Amino acid sequence: MKSFEIYIILKNHFGEIGSWWPKDSPFEVVIGAILTQQSTWTNVEKAIKNLKEENILTPRDISSIPLDKLKHLIKPSGFFNQKAERLKGISEYILKNYKGDINLLLSKNKAELREELLKFKGVGKETADSIILYAAEKNEFVVDAYTKRLYSRLGNVEENIEYDDLKKYIITEIPEELKLYQEFHGLIVLLGKNLCKKKNPKCISCPLASKCNFN
Ligand code: SF4
Fold it and tell me: Per UniProt, which keywords does this protein have (predicted)?
């Protein structure tokens, strides 16, 4: 089954979700993209709520807050020691190189931005692409564990496909449009969280079941 068909089936099933990543500012997307590593979105939301309650929402705020306090606030997202240091590192870099204005970094062209993001400690391809797609709002498709699981279960790709290969495979089959990139990724996340789970997928309720190789 082609990717565009998967997108249409998921959209008909879950409805239009548009740019689903919750954000009050581009920097909040950066925070979320770091906190969501090896975590669930529910736990990320608890950590972001803690930061919001303390008004810690900018690179300057993150740089100036004591490390232990930052760790405490983001604790619900797990791996908080590592993530606090990553957030500090990015925030200090933005302060030093962009006077604290993340928009100056995000306004770079897509290739330059991706290269720069990938230099940050703890920012891999999925995190960088999430920041480009949802914070910079540029056409960069994001693939994640849900995407890999779905495409391998459907029989489209091997289970151990590399990040870049899966991304290339998908983007050759869909129009290059920001809203579609954001929405398709969001729909795959919804499917993965609710139906195409790692253990015991709920195939009986899945809109892709008739075309899936899994069972
Ligand atoms: S039918 Fe089952 S395995 Fe296939 S995509 Fe749907 S939930 Fe996943």
Answer: 4Fe-4S, DNA damage, DNA repair, Glycosidase, Hydrolase, Iron, Iron-sulfur, Metal-binding
Ligand 1 center–CA 7 separation, angstroms: 14
Q: Rounded to an integer, what distance in angstroms lies between the CA atom of residue 209 and that of residue 139?
A: 29
Using one digit for the tens of pLDDT, what is the confidence trace for 135-173?
A: 999 999 999 999 999 999 999 999 999 999 999 999 999
Indicate the length of the chain as a whole number.
215
- The tokens describing 58, both together, are 């900018």
Same domain, 165 and 180: yes
Q: Which atom in ligand 1 lies closest to the alpha carbon of residue 150?
A: 5
Residues 13 and 102 in one domain: no
Ligand 1 nearest atom to the CA of residue 208, by list position: 6
pTM of the model: 0.94
**Residue 176 and residue 86 share a domain:** no
Ligand 1: list residues with CB < 6 Å.
150, 153-154, 195-196, 201, 203, 206, 208-209, 212, 214
CATH of the domain at 97: 1.10.340.30
